[in-house]
């Protein structure tokens, strides 16, 4: 076994602490968003490149502006995840001309109870006295989590088989739901939920790091309800 192979094996066998869980969840969001943008044709296919991740070939954007935007979002998400402030991330797909919400990809985040009453505490020096996640390392291995994530990415890839065609030029927005006491950057704006009236819903798989759990689902507007 080569040194590189050993390093990769060691990484896969590593148990997950809070920092590792935050990295895994943030990375999943990045690849999931990219997969949605590619599969739903929000960006042209030639603006994506192939990467190997989670035992799959995934596609990620080469658009520098989009990369910078997503990296900025993921950096902020990492901060909120560390502090236990994130409730869910929603990818909203809407028609450019109609302005109508056509799809909502929702990723619900919860902090897992590991049965340790001292796992979540408060910092007395924090002016907001906000709860801090101080959970011990989970017994779950990175490889196990990656296998669960792989199943979700496969479902996103297969979404073209059950979602209606997007018959107009579409754009996307990212909505992040946080606790009320979360510190929000000044450049971020409030948004309405962008719900879809009389929507259909497909629940996707979930994954757990034993520190965080992410449940996924997509809601969409029925094709015969569109104003074509």
Low-confidence runs (pLDDT<50, min 5 residues)?
1-9, 115-131
Number of domains: 1
Radius of gyration: 19 Å
| N- to C-terminal distance | 58 Å
CATH topology: Cell Cycle, Spindle Assembly Checkpoint Protein, Chain A
Counted beta strands: 9
State the helix count: 4
Helix and strand run: HHEEHEEEEHEEE
Quick one: CATH class? Alpha Beta
GO biological process, one term: mitotic spindle assembly checkpoint signaling
Subcellular location: Nucleus
Keywords: Cell cycle, Cell division, Mitosis, Nucleus
Protein name: HORMA domain-containing protein
SSE topology sketch:
Layout: H1 3-12, H2 18-39, E1 48-53, E2 56-61, H3 64-82, E3 86-95, E4 101-111, E5 120-122, E6 131-133, H4 142-158, E7 170-178, E8 200-208, E9 212-220
Antiparallel strand pairs: 1-2, 3-4, 3-7, 4-9, 5-6, 8-9
Helix pairs in contact: 2-3, 2-4
């Amino acid at each position: 076994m080569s040194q590189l192979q050993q390093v990769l094996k060691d990484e896969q066998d590593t148990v997950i602490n809070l920092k590792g869980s935050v990295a895994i969840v943030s990375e999943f969001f990045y690849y999931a968003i990219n997969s949605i943008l590619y599969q739903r044709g929000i960006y042209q296919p030639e603006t994506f490149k192939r990467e190997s991740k989670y035992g799959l070939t995934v596609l990620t954007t080469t658009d520098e502006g989009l990369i910078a935007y997503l990296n900025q979002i993921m950096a902020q998400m990492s901060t909120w995840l560390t502090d236990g402030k994130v409730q869910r991330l929603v990818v909203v797909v809407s028609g450019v001309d109609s302005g109508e919400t056509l799809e909502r990809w929702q990723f619900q985040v919860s902090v897992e109870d590991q049965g340790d009453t001292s796992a979540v505490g408060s910092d007395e020096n924090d002016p907001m006295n906000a709860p801090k996640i101080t959970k011990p390392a989970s017994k779950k291995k990175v490889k196990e989590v990656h296998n669960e994530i792989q199943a979700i990415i496969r479902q996103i890839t297969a979404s073209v088989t059950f979602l209606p065609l997007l018959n107009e030029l579409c754009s996307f927005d990212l909505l992040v739901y946080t606790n009320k006491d979360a510190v929000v950057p000044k450049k971020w704006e409030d948004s309405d939920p962008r719900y879809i009236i009389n929507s259909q819903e497909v629940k996707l798989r979930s994954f757990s790091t034993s520190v965080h759990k992410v449940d996924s689902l997509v809601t969409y507007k029925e094709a015969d309800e569109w104003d074509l």
